[in-house]
DNA sequence: AATCATAACAACCGCAAAGAT
DNA sequence: TATCTTTGCGGTTGTTATGAT
């Protein structure tokens, strides 16, 4: 006999939360702060298990959460980070302000995985069948192999692969569905907490520990890695070779990993440690991923937007 | 208009790590 | 140190909405 589920008690409600339940939960957290979830159902009268309450708060009711409509920038971040970290959704979420791990995970599973698969198919049907190739490896290999493709997800037209084409472009114009109508009501509930988040020391502490860092304006290419000049000329690669030089393993392996490259004052300590830890784990078995790491950890503030637009494969 | 298929995403489950006692 | 409790995480499922036939 296995372990009984946490919510199998008689009278424990499951399924979608109602606005009324949300209000009860938010009101309670507004007063007591998040945490001690075990006592929440008891103290609020909610017929929910503690886990459900925590999840509802974390994924929906918590202030500052952005729902739906992932920007191309965010898509790029997710793809890069997934390639770098794997399915560490919590770690990935820590780099995306206002997004929850659940949201990112769902978006990856329902959107990005398909897009990448489609892109893989367009470039190399054989690679597309290989389930263990990460997006990063795939992209790297593709460009190392000097294969190019034009791919427009928006029109669902995949023009495979003119091997003589000079430019690679993949316009993943996201086609996110509109947010559920109920989402807007949770936004309203979240707004109720804004004043509380500003005024309560307890809430402030919570906010700092949970809210992700606004890294977009603070990281970019490290000093050692010069951004392509075409970036300054409008955010496009001038040639396939230039693009390839950014993405190929050969080039990346020339960039030595150095913990000191993490030393941006702007980067959250935990994020640094996460990446350092991940890096150590991978370093023995895999080629360096220094490019992406430097891109994530570097100091060229304000260039990230441009960087994300440069490799338009994503 | 009805039915079926697919997409999107909210929520649950079980495991593991961290923290408390 | 050992045990118990709490929390966090990732995989998976269930429900609803939307589109196609």
From TrEMBL:
GO MF annotation terms: DNA binding
Keywords: DNA-binding, Nucleus, Repeat, S-nitrosylation, Transcription, Transcription regulation
Organism of derivation: Rhododendron simsii (Sims's rhododendron)
GO cellular component terms attached to this protein's record: nucleus
Record-level GO BP terms: response to abscisic acid; response to auxin; response to stress; stomatal movement
Subcellular compartments: Nucleus
Residue intervals of the HTH myb-type domain: 9-65, 66-116
Taxonomic lineage of the native organism: Eukaryota, Viridiplantae, Streptophyta, Embryophyta, Tracheophyta
Pfam (any one): Myb_DNA-binding
Highest taxon in the source lineage: Eukaryota
SMART domains registered for this protein in UniProt: SANT (SM00717)
Main location: nucleus
Name recorded for this polypeptide: Transcription factor MYB60
Domain Myb-like: residue ranges: 9-61, 62-112
